[in-house]
Amino acid sequence: MSFSRMRVLAVGLLLGGILVAAPMRAQSLPATPHTPDLLGLYPGMPNLAARNQLQKHSDAVNVRSASQAETGFGMTIPATRDMVTVSLTLPPNDSTVWMIQRSQTFDTVNVMSQEALMAGLRSKYGKETMTSDHGGGGLYVYWIFDKNGKLVTTPDKDLQGCSGSLFITNMRTGPDPSNPVTDKCYSSFLAVTAMLNRGNAGMLQGYNVELVNLPFAVQAAKITKGASDAAANKAKQDQLNKANQNRPTF
User: Is residue 148 one of the residues assigned to a domain?
Assistant: First the structure.
């Protein structure tokens, strides 16, 4: 996936979303490990606690909700082109974080080297577990964790095909049909992925870092889809019952 595509998906979180039609009782998902985290945010973190944590990232800019607040929130710092978006589970789940993304772009005034970015990431998450060079300046770097939040040293190479960004719409529609790659993603992809858009002389044009717990997201999406289907079926049945009672007199 290109750097521009990943940024569009992140911006889409702040601008998009469709409300679930009817309120439903919240459901609690299983607890998740507090590590890894990104800026102190982690999958499974409650909405309000996550908002308060993100606000610590800046004294000058406030956290802003997505256009449909239930889908997430974020923060953009214009001076450094630093953008953070946080994706939330949808009703009837309790509102909790399932993905965090952070991205920046650079120019001749605001600069960052590949070495500086990788040093920061390795200091936070340890030695990366996989890399994938997509050519054209695009480098993907992965830190894969087990279900307890412990870094995996020998991950499945197929996990390079996993992405939290691509699952955003699935939070309403449910998981995609089964296939060998998505099955692995849905069952085990707890990861930090960094996409480096590399320029000349070791400089960066931009980066995107994503932390996602896909098994957690998949479980939440199934609950959301199940509740939506149940509500639609009930509405259809209610309409049929009403129609059956509307009997003409002859």
Answer: yes
